[in-house]
Write a structure and sequence with these properties.
One of its GO terms (cellular component) is cytosol. Keywords: ATP-binding, Helicase, Hydrolase, Nucleotide-binding. This is DNA helicase. One of its GO terms (molecular function) is ATP binding. By secondary structure, the protein is an alpha/beta fold. About 40% of the residues lie in helices and about 20% in strands. It contains 26 helices and 21 strands. The strands form five sheets. A six-stranded mixed beta sheet has the order 3-4-2-1-5-6, with helices on one face. A six-stranded parallel beta sheet has the order 9-8-12-13-7-14. β12, α21 (about 500-505) and β13 form a beta-alpha-beta unit. α11 (about 295-305) packs across α19. The longest helix has about 40 residues, at about 5-40. The relative contact order is 0.10. The protein binds adenosine-5'-triphosphate (ATP).
């Protein structure tokens, strides 16, 4: 290949790319005009035209937003197909351009095919062994609107015309070697065959994707969400797609990917954010997680939810019309048991109050010369009676009930026969005012057990479900505790605790699922069977489609070898992914005495900042250590200091792992060691390998 050949080919592709951008500008202008026309309709003023206006503005704004989205690398692929395949152009070569969205010329000719469309599948799936009608696959790399390079795969040399040119080498390798920004990038231009199969797996049922570190599970999950929204927009955008990730840093890392894919109907939440009004970030130790995450907590919480409140009075004694009205503690507790059994305490308060009134009336009715209704009315207004009710059966919040577990004596009653003394001790000490990530499913469970006070029903406005009219975005507004998602994506599923599965399951009763994870990266030390059981309960009996990813695209082979060494010690037979990129740069392992640690860490991080253009992750064994390490370092946008647990799912150009020997399990260490794309430095005061 000569430079002129490449130059000529680039010029040729530039012509097509220009045509696409020109057409896109036209479509954008049309959408803008439609929006303006929609607003004009409002001036007509009757109800019908207002509804029409809303619909028109809504759809136009939605279209405009799609056209406005960042379109760096809008056109990224071209397929030259066997002439009989389709889309003949004037040169009688069937060719398809693949891009981030679909664009048609005015006469309907497809200028660009959306990567999610069936016609684009061959771009990702064709191989030399199975060309699927593709003669040449071309990847087009651009900077802004300018085509900068081309990479071709000749898949069917026998069918290629003599003058067909093949240029470039390795778009995938080029993509993998690029420095990382702080957010994840989409991979639409270089999705690989096995990934494509998982992305386009059937929309119904449960798609389970497993694979080692860096195999693209997260990328696949997100692209799958975008694919589903494309294939059945009304089902998935209407019902919504919930994407659950392990931590807020992770959610931040991936949240830029979906808009880049042109999708806005997805809700991203970390496990600490699934319950409205709670945003938990505190991590528990592995021991406490094993207790809080265990299914045994269901019963512990049920007992707590049925317990008397701390304000419980010692029976009822009050004066009324010269008489003493008395109910013993035993009597009121008997009512509590009867009314509370199997019911949600906040929802049956009215019933409980009625029973107390009945019991009082039964004890004095012989001596009262009034109607029972009068008696009820008087007592309901009586301050002593009202004070009794408030203390005896207050409206409680999940947070309050959870806080009762901090009292060792109470917890002993709730956990009797369920948790060992040691587990009880750990649990009661780990219940604090500020909820941890593992408290969130407990709060969700309690909310389910205690219910809410029945409220008078109010009608919700239609606009809530239709979307934000004329707003900057076309995001559909859902109520805070929306639970009817059409699809649920669970990332890093190996670390979802049984109680978390229950919480996620409540939000996807009728959903189809995509579950991605790597069992080898699991930090769960509780009952090994429970997570699987809880997961199966959450997803039900839907058909499962299994996919295994086998290539590690993140780590250099040199870095992954260090991680692999660690996991092989605990799982010698585990099939590990193959790291495709070799850099020739060996990881650096530093040893120091305790006194010198801060200085060595500072120097190591400085050095890494000089060696890579992008991000540096500094990983500490636990939260306390993370805070110490933070205090040693200057703030820098390129540096993220996280715990080994919070590093789950994350990726950095370089990683400095501090005190690997203190990371609490080999599996978590495996996670921490497999986060870097280019450089890995470990700093230790002990021998850890
Ligand atoms: N086909 C691809 N083309 C280009 N880059 C890819 C491809 N597949 C994956 N990558 C890149 O590899 C890196 C790892 O991907 P991802 O984070 O999805 O892996 P993962 O399997 O979820 O990893 P882990 O389990 O370790 O968290 C990302 O930078 C991603 O963009």
């Amino acid at each position: 290949m000569t430079d002129t050949t490449l130059h000529d080919e680039i010029a040729l592709e530039q012509k097509h790319v220009d045509r696409v951008y020109t057409r896109l500008a036209r479509l954008r202008a049309d959408a803008q005009q439609a929006e303006v026309d929609g607003y004009q309709l409002a001036k007509v003023g009757n109800f019908g035209s207002l509804v029409e206006r809303d619909a028109m503005v809504f759809h136009a704004a939605k279209r405009r937003h799609v056209f406005d989205a960042e379109h760096e690398g809008l056109v990224f692929g071209r397929l030259d197909m066997h002439p009989e395949t389709d889309l003949r152009d004037e040169e009688s070569v069937a060719r398809r351009y693949i891009g981030r969205l679909g664009v048609r010329a005015e006469d309907g000719e497809p200028l660009l095919i959306d990567w999610r469309a069936p016609a684009a599948a061959a771009f990702y799936r064709a191989t030399a062994a199975q060309p699927l009608g593709v003669i040449r696959r071309r990847m087009i790399t651009s900077f802004g609107e300018r085509v900068t390079s081309l990479d071709d795969d000749l898949l069917d040399p026998n069918a290629a015309a003599a003058d067909l040119r093949v240029v470039g080498d390795g778009a995938l390798m080029a993509a993998l070697s690029r420095a990382k920004g702080t957010g994840m990038r989409d991979i639409v231009a270089t999705i690989q065959h096995e990934q494509d199969l998982a992305i386009r797996s059937p929309a119904s049922g449960v798609t389970v994707v497993e694979g080692g570190p860096g195999t693209g599970k997260t990328a696949v999950a997100l692209h799958r969400a975008a694919y589903l929204l494309y294939t059945d927009r009304s089902r998935f955008a209407g019902g919504g797609v919930l994407i659950v990730g392990p931590s807020p840093v992770f959610v931040q890392y991936i949240e830029t990917v979906l808009p880049a894919l042109g999708e806005e109907s997805a809700t991203l939440r970390s496990l600490g954010q699934l319950v409205p009004g709670v945003n938990a970030t505190r991590e528990e130790t592995a021991q406490v997680r094993a207790v809080k995450g265990s299914l045994r907590m269901r019963k512990v919480l049920r007992r707590a939810a049925e317990d008397a409140p701390p304000s419980n009075p010692d029976g009822l004694r009050m004066r009324y019309r010269g008489e003493w009205l008395v109910l013993s503690r035993r009597q009121v507790e008997e009512i509590r048991r009867r009314v509370g059994r199997g019911a949600r305490r906040n929802e049956v308060r009215g019933k409980a109050f009625g029973e107390v009134l009945d019991a009082l009336w039964a004890s004095v009715k012989e001596r009262m010369h009034i109607e029972q209704s009068r008696f009820d009315d008087d007592l309901s207004d009586h301050e002593d009676f009202r004070a009794f009710l408030r203390n005896w059966w207050p409206l409680v919040t999940p947070q309050e009930v959870l806080s009762w577990l901090a009292d060792p004596r109470k917890l002993h009653r709730y956990a009797d026969g369920l948790l060992s003394n040691e587990e009880q001790r750990q649990l009661s000490r780990a219940v604090r005012a500020e909820p941890s990530i593992d408290d969130v499913p407990l709060l969700d469970e309690l909310a389910d057990l205690i219910g809410t006070q029945p409220k008078p029903k109010r009608k919700t406005r239609q606009a809530q479900t239709l979307g934000v009219m004329g707003g900057r975005r076309d995001r559909v507004q859902r109520e805070a505790d929306y639970r009817d998602y059409a699809h649920v994506v669970v990332d890093e599923s190996q670390d979802v605790t049984p109680m978390q599965w229950r919480m996620i399951g409540r939000r996807g009763h009728a959903a189809s699922w995509t579950i991605v994870g790597d069992p080898a990266q699991s930090a769960w030390i509780g009952d090994a069977q429970e997570p699987g059981r809880a997961r199966d309960e959450a997803i039900g009996r839907r058909t499962r489609h299994h996919h295994q990813l086998t290539t590690n695209y993140r780590n250099s082979a040199e870095i992954f070898e260090v991680a692999a060494e660690v996991i092989r010690k605990v799982s010698p037979d585990l099939p590990l992914p193959v790291a495709v990129r070799s850099t020739g740069i060996a990881p650096v392992h530093l040893r120091t005495g305790g006194d010198g640690l801060a200085q060595v860490v500072r120097e190591a991080v400085e050095k890494l900042l000089g060696e890579v253009e992008g991000t540096v992750g500094v990983i500490a064994p636990d939260a306390a250590f993370r805070d110490r390490v933070r205090s040693w370092l200057k703030a820098d946008d390129r540096v993220g200091v996280v715990t080994a647990l919070a590093a789950k799912g994350m990726e950095y150009d370089a990683v400095a792992l501090i005190e690997p020997g203190l990371v609490d399990s080999a599996r978590t260490l495996y996670v921490a060691l497999s986060r870097a794309t280019q450089r890995l430095t470990t700093v230790a005061t002990t021998d850890w390998r």
